[in-house]
Design goal:
Elements (H helix, E strand, L loop, with lengths): L2 H9 L14 H7 L3 H11 L11 H15 L2 E2 L1 E2 L2 E6 L8 E6 L12 E6 L2 E5 L19 E4 L4 E9 L6 E8 L10 E2 L2 E2 L8 E8 L23 E9 L11 E4 L3 E5 L8 E7 L12
Helix pairs in contact: 3-4
Length: about 290
């Protein structure tokens, strides 16, 4: 896209400045959490062409970003849209300090490869990880069904608490299996109250999609009409594990099951802000780089 059109996007406030993470400018990519290493790897991968009209898919850049972050971004857990789960058979006031892996192949003897995850009577899972009607191809939580909490225990849904609206589920009651004898197929990420009655760490998470709906909006007459109305979603009250409280600008993480995220410049000591750099899904990489 030409600089003239980029300038129009910025000056007419279709985006939030030249460093808007949705823009494929160096400033935008940097703010989104893309490193120079990933960009250089992408450039080497596409090579040099004399053609002025060649179109390079963004998927190719995202492939190289994932390749690097998979090796460099420690794992952690964040719940974007929390659903409260009360563990009925866990003693009131009891908090277990469990170990979460920062890396998939973390050696058991290396304490620096783990982070502490509090497990208490009140935990939160994603709203999308619970449904009232179960099915064979669904691995989340459902009434009378079990799922494994990552790094913790299997839990089984025993009751559902509704709000004033019959479709509004405000709380799940469950029982955990301390012996871990049950082996459910589904594995869920989660965040718990770090102490009885203490709300988990709140963070803001910004989810970005492609700025335009078509691959090459520059060739369209009404290119502004091609803007994706869902290119940015801000989730102000996501829950995070306590260890993320020390994150600083420049830090990058894999939020398990959600994608790769980087600390944004809008972060303050009172509220951390994370930008999604890229999702875990990789359609381009399945076939390998070309």
């Amino acid at each position: 896209m030409s600089k003239r059109k980029l300038n129009r996007l910025v000056t007419e406030k279709w985006v939030d400045g030249w460093d808007d993470p949705r823009l494929l400018t160096l400033a935008g990519l940097r703010r989104r959490g893309v490193s120079s290493t990933a960009i250089n790897s992408f450039i080497r991968g596409i090579g040099i062409t004399r053609s002025d009209n060649s179109l390079i898919r963004v998927d190719r850049l995202e492939y190289h970003i994932r390749e690097e972050l998979n090796k460099t971004a420690p794992r952690t857990m964040v719940v974007l849209r929390p659903l409260k789960v009360v563990i009925a058979n866990l003693e009131e006031g009891k908090v277990l300090d469990l170990d979460g892996k920062m890396w998939p192949d973390a050696p058991a003897e290396d304490a620096s490869s783990y982070y502490k995850v509090p497990f208490s009577r009140t935990v939160y899972i994603e709203k999308t990880d619970f449904r009232l009607k179960d099915s064979k191809d669904y691995y989340g939580l459902a009434p009378d069904k079990s799922a494994l909490l990552r790094y913790a225990f299997p839990i089984k849904c025993t009751d559902v608490i509704y709000g004033d609206n019959p479709d509004d589920i405000v709380e799940i009651r469950a029982e955990y299996d301390p012996s871990k004898t049950s082996k459910p197929k589904g594995v869920l990420h989660w965040v718990a109250e770090p102490a009885p009655g203490v709300e988990p760490l709140k963070v803001e998470v910004r989810l970005f999609e492609k700025l335009f709906m078509s691959e090459n909006p520059a060739e369209l007459k009404d290119w502004l009409g091609d803007l994706n109305p869902h290119s940015k979603e801000v989730i102000k009250d996501a829950y995070a594990v306590p260890s993320l409280a020390t994150a600083v600008l420049g830090d990058k993480f894999q939020f398990e099951r959600l994608g790769y995220f980087a600390v944004d410049t809008d972060s303050t000591p009172e509220k951390l802000v994370f930008n999604r750099t890229v999702t875990l899904r990789d359609s381009y990489g399945k076939a390998g780089p070309k």
